[in-house]
Amino acid sequence: MPSITLLKFEKDVKIEEVVRKFNGKKDIFEIKAKKSNFNSHEAIIEFEYEVNLEEEIKKRFGIEIKELKNLKTKRRVIAFLNNFTKTFEVYRGFDYLCKKIVEIAEELLGQNLFPLKLDGFSLVKIIRKFSIETKQLMFKNIDGFFWKVIRGKSLEKNEIAWKEIFRNVNSLRVISFRPKIRFLKDGTKYQITYNAEKGTLKFSSMEDFRYRPRYEIRQIVFILNYLNSFLNKTLKYEIPERS
Fold this sequence. Notes:
The protein is an alpha+beta fold. The chain has helices at 15-22, 53-61, 96-109, 120-129, 159-168, 214-228, 230-234, and strands spanning 3-8, 24-26, 29-35, 42-52, 72-82, 87-90, 114-115, 131-142, 145-151, 172-179, 192-195, 200-203.
C-alpha cells in the first residue's frame, strides 16, 4: 500500500445506488462494487485493468523478457466510498490511473470530488492530539525556498520545530507522524505522511506488515475528515504553548 488519495463530495448518496451505478465496465476498467460487510455506510469498489506483462516485469524488476511482449495481466485499484463521512478513498497515489478513476466516479455520482485538504492549524491539532510522535514537517515557500523541511525524532518536543510552527503555521503543508489510533497488531505503530495540499496519505514500508487493516485506515480518515469538517472550522483554535 504505497499511498491513498483522499477525496470529499458534498451531496448525499445511497450505498445501494452507488453499488448499482458502479458495477460494470467503464473506460479501461472493469468495475465491481459491493456493500461493505463491516460498515453499512461504506461501499467497496474495485477498478480492474490490464497491463502488458513484459512492461510490468521490466518496471518492477528491471528485466526484459521479449517472449512476454504480447501477454497481458490484470491489476486492480481498490476504492472505498463512505456516505456518512462523504469521503472517497482511492488506494493509489494521484497519478494518471487515479485521475481516471476520479473522473469516472464524478460521472457516476453526478458531482465533483475534491481533495481532503487541511490548513496549518488543523495539522497542529494532529501533532498535539492525534499523534504518538511527529517525525517530519514541511513548510511551503519559506525564506525564498519552495519547501523547508524539518526532520527528526519527537518533533512535538523540539523547540526549533515549534518556533518554526509559530512563525509559519499557515505555510505548514505536510507532516509525517505515528497516528494515535487503535492498532490490530500490537507494536505496529507505523508512520504516515499526510500531504494537506494534495490530500494524500503515504505509509511507511514495513517488511512484516505490508498491508494496513481497513479498521486502522478508517480511523485515520475519520480524524482527517473531522478536522476538515464545518464543526472543526467553526471552533476557534489558537496554537497553545507547549506544556
